[in-house]
């Protein structure tokens, strides 16, 4: 019994101590929000912006370790790969813009986004077939727009 | 001044202008950093560029499979097919180091661009 009490106390102590690990939960400035029709923008905001923008909504469990570590990691990685709030940073290289858009299209096709564990807490982020089609149509239109603007033939 | 003389002078000036333009083009092309991907790694692994000056980067893939030139710090992501050369536009960079990698092969050592 004493051994179990010791183990429980140790676990409780660890749970308290890991809360002291500093974790960044900042939302950097929005330099340029991606341009999209209102319907598509609404879908992106609900399903993608928490990880792929600087407008992350940090829920209560994002302040409780170790779950907070996972949330912070996903947001950091999400922003690194694709950030809808700093779209101007891709604009100097149109082919990068096209690549980012194609990645979105691929994620819609293979159903890899949103991440399944994100959906367990954010049911409203689940994408319907109509949502995916709307995003895919927007992506295709945007790619054509960039290609036309830059005189790129694919 | 005879017509023949004027024609000769005009041709000479045109040739000189073309020569200057060619020289400038070559000189400017030499200023474009050249990055190769060969035998599973980037060459050079690190290089310097002037800070606060937009520039272009040529990336050539000399391997048999496609690579993805990517940099989170530079906000660039480009697929380079085997045998292909692409040109990446890069903005003015603050002094510092910027890392790039091949997102298709995570075992490839990352490279570094130092802006000075």
Explain how this protein is built:
The complex is a heterodimer of chains A (154) and B (116). Chain A has 154 residues and is an all-alpha fold. Chain A is 60% helix and 0% strand. In chain A, helix 2 (38-47) crosses helix 8 (129-150) and helix 6 packs antiparallel against helix 8 (129-150). The model of chain A has no long low-confidence stretch (mean pLDDT 94). With 116 residues, chain B is of the alpha+beta class. Chain B folds into 2 domains: 1-31; 32-115, Sandwich (Immunoglobulin-like), CATH 2.60.40. In chain B, the strands form 2 sheets. In chain B, strands 3-9-8-5-6 form a 5-stranded mixed β-sheet, with no helix packed on it. In chain B, strands 2-1-4-7 form a 4-stranded mixed β-sheet, with no helix packed on it. The longest helix of chain B is centred in the first third of the chain and has 29 residues, at 3-31. Chain B starts with a helix and ends with a strand. Chains A and B meet through helix 6 of A and strand 6 and strand 7 of B.
Kindly estimate the percentage of residues of chain B that lie in beta strands according to DSSP.
Answer: 35-45%
Count of all domains of chain B: 2
What Rg of chain B, in angstroms, do the CA atoms define? 20 Å
Radius of gyration of chain A (CA) equals 20 Å
Shape by Cα distribution of chain A:
elongated
In short:
The complex is a heterodimer of chains A (154) and B (116). With 154 residues, chain A is mainly α.
Short key terms for the protein model shown above:
heterodimer; A: about 150 residues; mainly alpha; elongated; B: about 120 residues; alpha+beta; Immunoglobulin-like; 2 domains; 5-stranded mixed beta sheet; 4-stranded mixed beta sheet; 9 strands; about 25% helix
Secondary structure: elements and pairs:
The complex is a heterodimer of chains A (154) and B (116).
Chain A: H1 2-17, H2 38-47, H3 49-52, H4 67-81, H5 88-91, H6 94-109, H7 116-121, H8 129-150
Helix pairs in contact in A: 2-8, 6-8
Chain B: H1 3-31, E1 34-38, E2 41-43, E3 46-49, E4 55-61, E5 67-71, E6 76-80, E7 85-90, E8 96-102, E9 111-115
């Amino acid at each position: 019994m004493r051994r179990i009490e010791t183990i429980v106390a140790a676990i409780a102590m660890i749970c308290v101590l890991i809360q002291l690990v500093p974790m960044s939960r900042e939302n950097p400035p929005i330099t340029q929000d991606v341009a999209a029709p209102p319907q598509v923008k609404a879908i992106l905001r609900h399903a993608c912006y928490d990880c792929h923008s600087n407008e992350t909504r940090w829920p209560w469990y994002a302040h409780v370790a170790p779950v907070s570590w996972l949330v912070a990691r996903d947001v950091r990685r999400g922003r690194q790969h694709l950030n809808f709030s700093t779209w101007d940073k891709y604009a100097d290289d149109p082919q990068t813009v096209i690549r980012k858009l194609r990645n979105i299209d691929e994620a819609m096709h293979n159903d890899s986004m949103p991440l399944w564990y994100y959906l367990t807490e954010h049911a409203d982020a689940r994408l319907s077939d109509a949502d995916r089609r709307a995003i895919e149509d927007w992506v295709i239109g945007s790619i054509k727009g960039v290609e036309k603007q830059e005189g790129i033939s694919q | 001044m005879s017509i023949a003389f004027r024609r000769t002078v005009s041709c000479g000036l045109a040739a000189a202008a073309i020569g200057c333009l060619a020289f400038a083009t070559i000189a400017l092309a030499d200023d474009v950093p050249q990055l190769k991907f060969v035998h599973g790694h980037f060459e050079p692994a690190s290089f310097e560029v002037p800070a606060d000056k937009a520039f272009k980067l040529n990336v050539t893939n000399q391997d048999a499979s496609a690579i993805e030139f990517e940099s989170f710090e530079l906000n660039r992501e480009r697929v380079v097919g085997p045998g292909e050369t692409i040109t990446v536009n890069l903005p003015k960079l603050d002094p510092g180091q910027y890392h790039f990698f091949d997102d298709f092969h995570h075992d490839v050592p990352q490279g570094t661009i130092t802006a000075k």
